[in-house]
Automatic annotation (TrEMBL), chain A:
Residues 1-22 are annotated as: Disordered. InterPro entries: Rab-GAP-TBC_dom, Rab-GAP_TBC_sf, Rab_GAP_TBC_domain. The keyword Phosphoprotein does not apply. It comes from the Eukaryota. Pfam families: RabGAP-TBC (PF00566). Residues 1-20 have a biased composition (Polar residues). The keyword Cell division does not apply. May act as a GTPase-activating protein for Rab family protein(s). Residues 82-272 form the Rab-GAP TBC domain. This is Growth hormone-regulated TBC protein 1. GO terms for molecular function: GTPase activator activity; small GTPase binding. Keywords: GTPase activation.
From TrEMBL, chain B:
It comes from the Eukaryota. Gene3D superfamilies: P-loop containing nucleotide triphosphate hydrolases (3.40.50.300). GO terms for molecular function: GTP binding; GTPase activity. This is Ras-related protein Rab-39B. InterPro entries: P-loop_NTPase, Rab, Small_GTP-bd, Small_GTPase. SMART domains: RAB (SM00175), RAN (SM00176), RAS (SM00173), RHO (SM00174). Keywords: GTP-binding, Nucleotide-binding. PANTHER family: RAS-RELATED PROTEIN RAB. SUPFAM superfamilies: P-loop containing nucleoside triphosphate hydrolases.
Amino acid sequence: MEETQNMESHFNDSASSDSNDCQRVDQYGFERAEDFNYESYEDFMSRHLAVVTRRSKKWTKLLQGTVKVEKNIKVKRYVRKGVPCEHRTQIWMAASGAQDQLDRNPGYYHSLLKAEHDPKIEEVIRADMHRTFPDNIQFRASSEPCLQKALFNVLLAYGYHNKDVGYCQGMNFIAGYLLIITKDEEKSFWLMDALIGKILPDYYTPTMLGLQMDQEVLGELVRMKVPAVWQVMNRHNVMWTLVVSRWFICLYVDILPVETVLRIWDCLFYEGSKILFRVALTMIRHNENLISQAQSLSEICERFKQITNGEYVEDCHTFMQKIFMEPGGLSTATITKLRKMCRNRITSA
Amino acid sequence: MQVPWNFRFGIVILGDSSVGKSSLLHRYTEGTFDESRQSPLGIDFKVSNMYFDPDVVIKLLLWDTAGQERFRSICKSYMRNSVGCILMFDVSQRQTFDRVRSWQQEVLDYVKPNPMFFVLVGHKCDLAVGRQVRKSEGDALAKKLNMLAYLEVSTKENINVKETFETLTRGIYNLFQQGKIPTRGDWQGLTVGATVQKESPVTKKSACCNCG
């Protein structure tokens, strides 16, 4: 359990390999669905690659001779337009403060792995191993090396480090994505700590109060910005948790396409949790008619699943532009106020 | 002769983490087995119609829940809208059986004053080795806790899957016919819908008729 793995060589980027007719696995190791539309994907990629290349050049220039990532308008704009894959780990680590933590606490992660662990937590984490990304070849028990081991280590260490949280189902998906991107257990651990300890409200603690609060906040925002949807939810007595809990708990992992999720996370690490509302509001608003015409509880649920698929969310670059326009203004003051109100409402219920 | 009615039952599936709740529901509604089914992380649901007798259609709202304790607060409100519960344990994990009693108590306390009817499911009964709970123990516990039945189920081998849902639904239906389940306007657990037409057996949720 103590040993960590060298994950450098285990997986070669296949993104740039020539577009052979049947590229069944994406650059992150996820197998494409059987009904994956290669034609529209090729079409999208031919446009998207130009964007990516341009962004990549700009980033390389920006980062020349520096390891620091400043917080300013220019970098914010850069982040919103997407962090290139090769810089992602660095930017996430720097922007979230995870790098500082790592530098200040050398060896800490490894000491956590050597600690005596709670067998109960170990058991719960173990039960989630085979159901974390079964569609990703890096997480197959048969792959060599297998990311399941790294995933187990990160989650166990985190549970020991943050005893208020321990382990909450859903964290496996977060840690899994971090490992896919950073290919490094220790960095994944500190990024996880930045997310759970700092960026997100208490989503994963035993009361899940922060999660309940943010679901309610989204409800309030929908009431203001997309009233027709709010009304249909109200009419059929659908609680927000039923349709959006996964969105928040998994930070859109396994909900939205991989590339789109990574773009959202770029902003999440740089700007904070407000971005999660922007994403939700954009999808809901864009599909206002579809959702508000639902006739029953089950139709509402189905439609909330439907809206997380399709071209609108697959074209990550356009989608990310939309999230900053479509929902309109969303000030931090508003979010803070709504969070306070919703938290009070829940705790006094 | 009683006029045939259309009913809607809320059914919730509960039990410890990874006893196989989502797999069971998936097998029942989709007919396939998927070993790596994810936790619903909160609550999820499916709809299924059950055809009873000649003219009775029962619409089942099937609530799938996350087993991990901290998700309980999210799932609770939907327990209130259920009349039946499939309470599951894993026959190869003794501790999941030991927790059955407290699961039931917690649910009953929570839904009070509304009723809740249970079937107990010993899951993964296909496992030839590693069984830690005997069938007789399951039978005895179900009896002791006043449950409608105990079934040994394998989602993998498709054993007793359909029977589980039918036993619970039939049991609730019979109890209702015997007048043992009162309906209330503010309770969605068991809803009496419109009479069922022979020509169109599937009726949409419709205005409530008064019992005649």
